[in-house]
Structures are given as C-alpha cells and as structure tokens.
Amino acid sequence: MKVQEQAIGFTPGMLFSNGYVAGNTLYVAGQQGPDSKGNVTSTDITQQTTNAIAAVKQVAEEAGFEMSDIVSVTVYVTDLNDVPKMNEVYRKLIPDPKPARVALRVAGLIGGAKIEIAAVAVKH
Fold it and tell me: Which CATH architecture has domain 5-122?
C-alpha cells in the first residue's frame, strides 16, 4: 500500500512544513501563533496560547482534518508560572475528549514566544 503524502504550508527555502500528512496521520509542526505579519508581538500567555491553538487548527483544516482528530499534543512553555493561564485557554479551545498531552518547560523559543504547540491528528 502506498502512503499518500502531502506537505502543508511549506514555503520554498524554509526548513520545515507547518504540517505533514502521511496516510491518515497529520503531524503539525510547533505553532507559536504570531500576528498577521508573522511576528510574536504579545507577551500575554493567554493571547499567545489562543493564537497557537488557532494556528494548529488552521494547519489541521488545510490538511482536511478537524480539531477532534487530534490525538496527541506537545506544549512547550518558557515559564511554568504561565501553565495555569495556558490551561484555561487550552480547556476551552481543545475539544473533548482531550488528546494525550505532554507539557514541558524549555529555556527559550524562537522569536521570543512563550508557548509553542505541536500536534498529531489521525483520521478515524
């Protein structure tokens, strides 16, 4: 059986795609949720989390997936004190049943972001 593959949101010259479909699985690269110009301008974790989840949703929808297809999420944060506020947004925007999740603190993220979210979705 040949696996259907498709890069989502790849721009020539970039080192990665925003998402990659292999068969019935979508791998969403880490999304930070920048503003419309591609810059991380807000230092508010609530806004950054909202934007990052919206970016994950956009990649999923471009690939023909829905948020309910997400089975695994990895959340990177730069400040553990931001986790409660991040969780408030996550709870509201990620549909039930919640996917498996790993959340971890990192020393820093590209562009000065406070959060980055990667995901895996599977068509059932």
Answer: 2-Layer Sandwich (3.30)
Number of other residues whose CB lies within 10 A of the CB of residue 123: 13
DSSP string, 60-100: HHHTT--GGGEEEEEEEES-GGGHHHHHHHHHHHSPSSPPE
| Domain residue ranges in the chain | 5-122
Q: Residue 8, exposed/middle/buried by CB under 10 A (0-12, 13-18, 19+)?
A: buried
- Summarised one tens digit per residue, pLDDT across range 38-72 is 777 788 999 999 999 999 999 999 999 999 999 99
Can you read off the two tokens belonging to residue 77? Answer: 């944060």
Rounded Cα distance, 27 and 35, in Å: 22
Copy the structure tokens of residue 75.
């959340």
- Whole-prediction pTM value? 0.92
Mean pLDDT for the stretch of residues 29-33? 90
DSSP annotation of 21: E
